[in-house]
Write a structure and sequence with these properties.
297 residues; alpha/beta; Rossmann fold; 2 domains; 6-stranded parallel sheet; elongated
């Protein structure tokens, strides 16, 4: 017997589903669990998944077509057709919109237990709690924190990780303020590593001590876990840092932090009352950093 979870969203959305995925796995003991989504997310959550299938691969194209007779864009080998892939899968948890043809396609492939949930909440409920509503009545407080068991979490912590990007310019605190904050922390003897994702083409600021450029997510999580503090915007990397167990300062503006903030035992959210990121001051962020670092002004 085997089980499947479908989630093809971005990093932050994936991290916020981890508690629900963990409970799904617990409900299906002894079953092989596959992720249909982004393979890198499967590698990041290797403690949950036995296999990761690329939802964007041609072999799965027919699952997302409204034409029941739709064929993949290219003909896969007999061992890699959806019918072969789904042989033995008895249950599936699908984070998919109501309009998606995926649930019907999965049922046609012989999956008897199919649970579907819209990827995003429709009300002011924290997204983690929204996903856990699938397991109402048996969710413990400790289940409400996304966790990644990364190798660096138990090591001696040194330095600070900083990520100035996000999925939208509206969510970004001004780069110049990140640079000013970095300089202030460096002056206090805190080495700063800048996290540079594929979308941050400008790279790290001049004079920065260290830059982590386009690292695999599993490696990035381990590096962040070895830092004393992470500072970032409303982004997937901020969720990753919190789930890796790193003390996290997350800056919010346009998004509702009550729904989308990272969760963790040492997470602090600084939200702009106006919704404009430029209204968050360097002094306010620096003060939060000092609180985490055990220093007083």
């Amino acid at each position: 017997m085997a089980s499947l979870i479908y989630h093809a969203g971005a990093l932050g959305d994936f991290v916020t589903t981890l508690p629900a995925m963990q409970l799904w796995k617990a409900d299906h003991p002894g079953e092989q669990l596959s992720l249909l989504g982004r393979p890198e997310h499967g590698r990041l959550a290797a403690h949950l998944f036995d296999a990761a299938w690329d939802a964007g691969a041609a072999e799965f194209a027919g699952l997302f077509s409204r034409d029941e007779a739709a064929e993949p864009a290219s003909t896969p080998s007999a061992e890699r057709t959806p019918a072969a892939r789904f042989a033995g899968i008895a249950s599936a948890l699908l984070f998919a919109a109501e309009s998606s043809p995926l649930p019907a396609a999965v049922r046609r492939l012989g999956v008897n237990e199919v649970v579907r949930q819209d990827p995003f909440p429709g009300s002011t409920m924290h997204v983690v709690d929204y996903h856990l509503a699938l397991f109402a009545g048996r969710v413990r407080d400790e289940d409400r924190i996304p966790r990644l068991p990364v190798g660096g979490s138990g090591s001696v912590k040194r330095g600070i990780a900083l990520h100035a990007g996000s999925g939208s310019p509206r969510k970004n605190w001004p780069q110049a303020r990140f640079e000013e904050l970095s300089a202030m922390l460096a002056e206090r003897g805190e080495p700063v590593a800048w996290i540079i994702g594929p979308a941050e083409v400008d790279g790290s600021p001049r004079g920065s001590e260290e830059a982590w450029k386009s690292l695999p997510l599993a490696e990035l999580a381990e590096r962040i876990a070895r830092r004393r503090l992470f500072i970032g915007n409303d982004s997937g990397v901020s969720h990753l840092a919190a789930a890796a167990g790193c003390p996290t300062v997350a800056l919010f503006g346009a998004s509702d932090y009550r729904v989308w903030s990272p969760r963790g035992p040492r997470v602090r959210v600084l939200a702009s009352p106006s919704g404009r990121m430029e209204d968050i001051t360097v002094e306010d962020v620096f003060r939060l950093c000092l609180d985490f670092l055990g220093e007083s002004r």
